[in-house]
Sequence to fold (303 residues):
Amino acid sequence: MRIDTHLHLYADPAQGLHDLTAYPIVEYGEKDDVTFAGLAGTVADALATLEAEGFDYAAVLGSFELPELPHPPGGADYWPAVPPHAALRDELVAYNRWLCDVGAQHPRLLSFLAANPAVMTSAEVYAHFAEMFGDSGARGLKLHPIAIRTYPDDPGLAGAYDALEEAGAPVVFHGGPDVRGFGWADPKRIAAVAGERPGLAVIMAHLGGAAWRDVAALAEAQPTLRFDLSEIVHWIGAPLAPTAAQVVALVREVGVERVVLGSDFPWYTPGTTAAIVEELPGLSASEAAAIIGENAARLLRLG
Fold:
């Protein structure tokens, strides 16, 4: 079984193409030979790519971001208990329903919900998620702390985490430094959530990104923490990225069983990402198979 645990979809292809250029990847330094998929990230794009590249499932990771990407008011670290952008609540709910409708129509696509504590209270998101996990087939939660200007331990996310634990569903965090140094997705803060909630399956995306050197110690301290290899393996050899040998060493240090494959489609495709993993020096065929599918199948309870 081959499973992509990190795929994004766009209802509007123009928005997908915009995001491919609006969010340049700078954290690893310059690398001239990175190849991007060049797709808009529509449902049709995803299904065709998964079929062509032999993938059985893909986790569809959403993100609900606010116009102009505002920070919490008054210079606070956390969003207030009364969300200042509550007027967008219906839009967030509709977005999550669209994600789940896509999953219902296409069983190969596993719908992960979005949350934003600037929009919904902890109690509201708990009630919403309980419904989506119970009746709509949701499979997890994706959080991009940088994009939603939210630290992983924001109190407004407590209800989301409660609902995930009850459903036995994972959360995927974008992991890595932000260019302005706020530390929204600092791997240490993501690991802290895993430490505070040992019953919650926490996946740190990108193997920590350009903060990958912190990952081994965090994995040792938090044995329930998991990682995906999205994006970072495409940047192997860049100035602030690991070498191929360092990726293999780090994967073995944290434990192969705790690592899954993600593509970050439509930036990259699952097939090209899997090919990089399969060619990592010294990684055995059984280790590659575990990363490309077996570990995710257990985590997502797929047959």
The domain at 3-299 is CATH 3.20.20.140 (TIM Barrel). The beta strands are 3-7, 57-61, 109-113, 140-143, 171-173, 202-204, 225-228, 259-260. The first strand starts at residue 3 and ends at 7. The chain has one domain: 3-299.
